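Appendix C reproduces, verbatim, an entry submitted by the partner laboratory led by Prof. M.T., so that reviewers can inspect both the input and the predicted structure.
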Amino acid sequence: MVLIESDKINKKYRKAWNVIRDCGFPVVSSRNWLFGNLDIMKSYSTHWQLSKLTRKYGRTYGLMQGSHPTIVTSDPEIIDQICFKQFHLFHSRIMDPSSSHPDTAYEVHEFAARGERWKRIRSLTSKAISNQNLRKLFHVMHDSVNHFMMDLEKEITDSEVLELHPRLQRLTFDIISRCCIGLPHGCQHNDANLKLLLKKFSPLQRCLPDLKWIALMFAKLCQLFRTPFHLDIDPIVIYTNYLHKVVSMDIVDQSRSSFLYFMKCVEDDEWNGWVVDADKPCDVSSIKIIQKLTRGEIINQCRFLTLAGFDTTANTIAYLIYLLANNYEKQEKLCQEIAMLDEITFDNIQHLNYLHCAIMETLRLFPHASLLQSRACIQQCKIGSYTFNKGVGVIFDTWSLHYDHEIWGNDVKQFRPNRFLNCTTIQRKNWMPFGAGPRQCIGMRFAILETKIIMCRLLKKFRFRKIENKSEIK
């Protein structure tokens, strides 16, 4: 039986390998037929390793994530075709083999959903992140930053060095929790949910597609042995249970500008029309949006938005502070612009052009969430001279794209916010730390507004300087 199963797996791997063979692009070799190039894709330096492979193989090449054939590209034209012109063939992200199927699972969020279901969840959530509602949420963000600044001023002294990143994580989690869930309390002080979410998750977060049963069995075994062996419960399970309680609350108890309020307004847990086969081309622009969300979709969407919305923003702010500390003249220029504001409002913060450019330049240099950007090919197609077979995954190598001399010039490694004051069409099109096309990050405007508020308050009060004998970010 073991031999038969081994032979079946071997045949599937050979079949998967053939998906990216003879398609017009080079394929990265692997020493391990079972794991393929997972050592590259699951390392802490994946973005640098992909950049190295790009220099060796060119802008587009193939590799194997276990038995999953994957194309990596930093070619602007290919990215444009996938994200815009042929989006109907690439409306899905690469599916996580250890998760439930996004078409049939009762609980799914926008990031995992495909086709019509993705379009419906995204459209109904987008109303909560419109400019009109962001204006209403501005005071919530500002209130959280007020508490953050008061705490910071109590802690800091002239000779003291403070580690800002964990404090920024607490702040951004407070902001996204209040804006998303709408409960009238902060969570910057010893919040149990944040402590849970900062824990490391199971090391088996992604397994081989043909061995999915191992991941599912592993998860069930973990649950089975948690109680007798006094193991910690999965942090995500605890947080999801918490969200179940919050979503079950009466709608009148929640802020009318929170994301949750908008989703609860269209909740229909008895509706079963969410089951849609998305394994086919889909013209999302012609889809009529059904104004309904299930309870499971709302819970998962809240979980996704809070998880995706705190650490990424904290990282962006930390990188920006690092760059300003190493470029003091640019920090002073930014401070002068911010000093012109008597007060910080939703309207006047939009006119801080240099701050906006500094944020964009930071995300060009450090597109830290870009490895989440992926697509899956739903139907075989041709893009230029390359063949994209059905089932192949596509990952955008944003780091190589953002450091491309042909697009950004010879000073690509320098922090130069001014490049975005006169940004070319090509540069604007190929700046994609939030992704591109219809599946661009839904929270981009929220994150940028939040970053602007925090940086304005910090730079009105403090200056950042480089600490000697500290290693550089590379």
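The mean pLDDT is 86. Additional entries are available on request from the coordinating office.
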